[in-house]
Amino acid sequence: MEGILITFEGIDYSGKTTQAKKLFNYLKRKGHKAILLREPGGEKVSENVRQVLLSSGNTGMDPLTELLLYEAARAQLVSKVILPALRQGKLVICDRFYDSSLAYQGYGRGLDIKMIDYLNEVSVSGLKPDLTILIDIPIDVFSSRMRQNNKKKDRIEKEKIDFYKRVRDGYLKIARKEKKRFKVIDGSGEIEVVWDEVKNTVDYFLRG
Ligand code: TMP
How deeply is 169 buried, as exposed, middle or buried, from its count of CB atoms within 10 A (0-12, 13-18, 19+)? Predict the structure, then answer.
């Protein structure tokens, strides 16, 4: 595969979307053939599945249903957009990827990790990110950012704090297991401070 896949991960309110956008603009300015995608979404069918997943009206969704919908949105995005872009030598930035399912549905909801590993592998046809940036924030930062945010909460954001603690710990566990692929960056500081670290990490990686 010619292209490069960089993914961003982190719990809600970590600021990873802001950082992914900054990276996209930076790399475009530097002349890279970059595209920015998000999960769930990034493609027509996947965006429709996103609506189902995040609609706060869809209460009582079974954890397995939830997992399978995330995997379905992912399979569609990978086959229709990510793989073709990588084949064309593009640099793909994805705001969330399969590690989100491990962290949220595995460590958060308690579904079997091995099963999720398997479904992840199937839905991405064995593809692996070249670099994964985990923007990590402590739970007290998460709580205070959530309190300050006036936007209507989506279905996942309505989860309790303990859920997010499990998801955060899960992410750190995954990052420890895959030290080579992951770079963990503290997301609790100012946007520009975090950006400095993201930029340095990616510059270093691309020089590699
Ligand atoms: P976003 O807010 O970063 O766009 O992500 C949407 C929500 O979906 C967020 O709360 C995390 C959640 N999510 C999962 O639970 N599992 C997944 O596999 C993915 C991709 C996202």
Answer: middle
